[in-house]
Automatic annotation (TrEMBL):
Metabolic or biological pathway, per its Swiss-Prot or TrEMBL entry: Cell wall biogenesis; peptidoglycan biosynthesis
Membrane-spanning ranges: none
Highest taxon, organism lineage: Bacteria
GO molecular function: glutamate racemase activity
Catalytic activity, reaction form: L-glutamate = D-glutamate
Protein name: Glutamate racemase
InterPro entries: Asp/Glu/hydantoin_racemase, Asp/Glu_race, Asp/Glu_racemase_AS_1, Glu_race
Record EC number: 5.1.1.3
Source species taxonomy: Bacteria, Pseudomonadati, Pseudomonadota, Betaproteobacteria, Burkholderiales
Family annotation (Pfam families): Asp_Glu_race
């Protein structure tokens, strides 16, 4: 039956594991296929046309190879570049994107000032600017492009991660709970939640951190339920795909996901971009 088919989740690398973690908590009976396009990461520093083409290719692969019943675009840059194209191309497929959680952050902030950390690809996208414009009367948003941070998290370079987190928060923004200070931080890339402990250490417990995993997981549940596609009896398995190093993905799964999650053992054939 259609409800027995897996849900596809893809990202340019391991950042989407933060979304997968939330999805598995919300939908423990569902099976998933996680596609890490690490051979072409990071998306946030590539052009929109490249990311759009890559997203369309991956969606076709997941449909043909795994017959997915839903697709979660677990990457802010890919969502901004391609989610509208994916929905237009695959009209019967529930497609869920992610975007920086500006609205929840504005509601959380007491000072009315919010810092948004994201890739340049996300911050420069029309989709993001539309969201930002719609919320300008709710908070003052300070936008910080975080070059290199997703790549450092992808590689697991602790020294680089810590230095970049410090550079893009402590050295750029004035955080605090007083008038005119920034009291809320949006982790606007799916990689960044894996550096949350470092941000908390740098900024202190009074600064609110906002990410997108739980809202995305709840929205995915609602879409599948509306179409009668929830699987009440699945085993919660994850099938892994990567265009990069299987060992790197295996290491990331062991590090970032909950204990007991089976690590990947296979690598797919490389995908070719359409001409």
């Amino acid at each position: 039956m259609d409800r027995d088919r897996p849900i596809g989740v893809f990202d340019s690398g391991v950042g989407g594991l933060s979304i997968l973690r939330a999805l598995r908590a919300e939908l423990p009976r569902e099976d998933f296929v996680y596609f890490s396009d690490a051979g072409h990461a990071p998306y946030g520093e590539k052009g929109e046309a490249f990311v759009s083409n890559r997203s369309l290719e991956i969606a076709v692969d997941l449909l043909e190879q795994h017959r997915i019943k839903g697709l979660v675009v677990a990457c802010n840059t890919a969502t901004a570049a391609a989610v509208h194209l994916l929905r237009a191309r695959h009209t019967r497929l529930p497609v869920v994107g992610v975007e920086p959680a500006l609205k929840p952050a504005a509601a959380l902030s007491k000072t009315g000032r919010v810092c948004v950390l994201a890739t340049r690809g996300t911050l420069s996208s029309a989709k993001f600017h539309g969201l930002l414009t719609s919320l300008r009367d709710q908070a003052d948003f300070v936008l910080v492009p975080c070059d290199g941070l997703a790549a450092a998290i992808e590689s697991g370079d602790e020294v680089a991660i810590r230095e970049l987190c410090r550079r893009y928060t402590v050295e750029v923004c004035c955080f605090g709970t007083g008038p005119g200070e920034i009291d809320t931080l949006v982790l606007g890339c799916t990689h960044y939640p894996f550096a949350a402990e470092i941000f908390r250490e740098l900024l202190g417990p009074s600064i609110g951190l906002v990410e997108t995993g739980q809202p995305v997981a709840r929205h995915t549940r609602r879409l599948l339920e509306a179409q009668g596609l929830l699987n009440p009896q699945g085993s919660g398995q994850v099938h892994w795909r990567t265009t990069g190093s299987t060992e790197a993905l295996r290491t990331a799964v062991r590090r970032w996901l909950e204990p007991g999650t089976p690590a990947p053992a296979e690598t797919p054939p490389p995908l070719r971009l359409a001409a």
